[in-house]
Amino acid sequence: MKTKQNKILVPIDFSEQSLIALKQSYNLAKIQDAEIVLLYVLEELNPVIKVFFSEVSGLKEAVEKNLKTLAEDSSKESGVPISYLLTKGSVYNKIVKTAKAIKAKMIVMGTQGAARGKFIGSNSLRVVKTSPCPVITIKGKKHQKGCKKILLPLDLTKATTDKVNIGIKLAKLFNAQINVASIILSDKNEVLSKLEEQINEVKEVIEKENIKCETTLIPIEKGKKKLVSALLDYAEDIAADLILIMTQQENDFKELFIGSKAQAIINKSEIPVMSVLPQKKFEQKNK
User: What's this model's pTM, rounded to 2 decimal places?
Assistant: First the structure.
């Protein structure tokens, strides 16, 4: 198959979750007329440890053979061109550098929430924070082939316009409807009117683009239910296929950390989560 200009990067470690992410990337590649690029990162071993692992010398060859087979088999299964890359170094650093090098449209990667592992836990969160492109993290085991319903959580931050514009682009791409939701503490009456005004304005903007849009305000009582749990429960209730979040930092000096709410959504959601940087930070990352 001919290579494509558009690229979707899929980090692979041959775990079940990374292979689920690969299958989820098929439909994205078809819709975007893109090539899937598999990436395996060989983590460098401590020189002392290498002495005790004679099989390390043949590890690269074995991984490359398996990558080649996976790329060929997956390409036949999906009808999408799939290539592969093998590199060595820090996992999240190599994923981000590769995404920049191939000018990836997005990264699709498996995650197992807060658990640790080659492409999961802290690595996936670091990729989300430092990626030059949107990142879709996939934690759940069962997913729809398409994307018919996008959940757009909104608050009163300045990044709302960016999030809505990206949501509109995604909805047009997938021919999907958008569900806009804001969560509010039941005793915050002074915020309620602002959220109602904002959510109605957003609905109007989305519907002007001929996209079906439903909106809701989700009240929660302080101390009884956490914001993230309420949001994810709502996502399950409406059978959302994708949750779109912004990953602006809560404190600018925390270079490798993202906001706690975004982190919790990525770690806990069984529904795929697309994480996108606000436009200004996105432009800075791609300079």
Answer: 0.84
